[in-house]
Amino acid sequence: MAILEGEHLTKRFGGVVAIDDVSFSVDEGETVGLIGPNGAGKSTLFRVVSGVHEPTEGTVRFMGDDITGAEPYDICHRGLVKTHQIVRPFGNLTLLENATVGAEFGGRKHDDPEERAYEALEFVDLVERAHDEPDNLSVGELKRLEIARVLATDPKILLFDEVAGGLDPEETEEIVDLIGDINERGQTVFLIDHVMRALMKVSHRVMVLDRGKLIAEGTPAEIQSNEQVIDAYLGESARSDSDSASNGTSDSSAGSESSGSARSDAD
Ligand SMILES: Nc1ncnc2c1ncn2[C@@H]1O[C@H](COP(=O)(O)OP(=O)(O)OP(=O)(O)O)[C@@H](O)[C@H]1O
User: Fold this and answer.
1) Using CA atoms, how far apart are residues 171 and 241, in angstroms rounded to an integer?
2) Cα separation of 41 and 95, whole Å?
3) Which of 102, 118, 195, 221 could form a disulfide with 164 if both were Cys (CB 3.0 to 4.6 A apart)?
4) Integer CA distances (angstroms), 210 to 18, 55, 68, 235, 264, in order
5) Residue with CA closest to ligand 1 atom 26
6) Per-residue pLDDT at 145 exceeds 70
7) Ligand 1 pocket check for 68: Cβ under 6 Å
8) Atom 18 of ligand 1 has which residue's CA nearest to it?
9) Residue 44 Cα: closest atom of ligand 1
């Protein structure tokens, strides 16, 4: 069953068409990746879906309900929440207080927001730092705090906008495992990332945006060998990766460096 659907979504900023007649759906329990070159419209699509921007045209449905133009807090209460691309926790609050703000913002039958915040910190392995302040966290820990903040809202679907961006390979691996654990416990995941190895590993299905249009969707293997996607984004090395993978000489789950800004997990 579809938990999230976009129907003919268009968002214009003046003369810029950031997303152009995009229709998609995400099923309950899936992990779906969204990729595409810089400026393709990925973050705009997430903002439209999560209520930050109202679409110029089209409809957003969450669990069958039309939520087009609803406020982010309303959408969050319903169970859809998005991480911020740039993580900015409240520096003067502890980790627990930051996560509690998330729990209170979610506001869905929380007997005890602090308890939910604690559980979320435990889940992301930051509970021992609960009374610490965010200033003392590494980039990877900050990303995990951001995940705790959204988990504390008790969401049905989580939208991760570049949650692996800027992480080293070990931190990236931790985030990939965390996303897998979140999905395993029944929450749906929709994620944007340029770190191809991470996104392809964790996604059941991948959608590709290019210049505001959805140009492809399929399994990670299908997407990595799709000529149009390679041309638009993944670059020439993905073609040789998938050729050598089919010859048994390469790891086909790997992404590739490319001019289209897809990144392997080496950076
Ligand atoms: N608030 C805004 N006002 C005006 N133009 C915007 C706004 N937000 C996005 N755009 C434009 O819309 C287009 C799509 O941007 P968007 O950030 O959604 O792309 P993206 O695929 O997320 O890129 P990246 O991978 O670099 O994050 C770009 O041309 C961008 O400049």
Assistant:
1) 24
2) 32
3) 195
4) 10, 18, 23, 13, 19
5) 38
6) yes
7) no
8) 41
9) 18
Atom number, ligand 1, closest to the C-alpha of residue 209 = 21
Q: Where are the alpha helices (DSSP H) in the chain?
A: 42-49, 72-78, 95-106, 113-123, 139-151, 169-184, 196-202, 220-224, 227-229, 236-246
Which residue do the tokens 């926790």 mark? 89
Q: Ligand 1 in contact with 249 (CB < 6 A)?
A: no
Going across the sheet that includes 65-66, the strands are 16-27, 2-13, 57-62, 65-66
Torsion sign across C-alpha atoms 185, 187, 188, 190: negative
For the stretch 193-203, pLDDT in tens is 999 989 999 99
Mean pLDDT of 84-109: 82
Question: pTM score > 0.90 for this model?
Answer: no
CA distance 140 to 145: 9
**Nearest-angstrom CA–CA distance, 90 and 93:** 6
Task: Calculate how far, in angstroms, residue 120's C-alpha sits from the geometric centre of ligand 1.
Answer: 31
Residue 128 exposed, middle or buried by CB count within 10 Å (0-12, 13-18, 19+): exposed
Judged against a pLDDT cut of 70, whether residue 231 lies above it is answered with: yes
* Beta carbons within 8 Å of 35's beta carbon, 6+ residues apart: 42, 192, 193, 194, 196, 199, 206, 207, 208, 209, 223, 229, 233, 262
Q: What ipTM is given for this predicted complex?
A: 0.97
d(CA 244, CA 29): 32
Is the shortest distance between the CB of 37 and ligand 1 below 6 Å? no
Q: What percent of the chain has pLDDT over 90?
A: 72
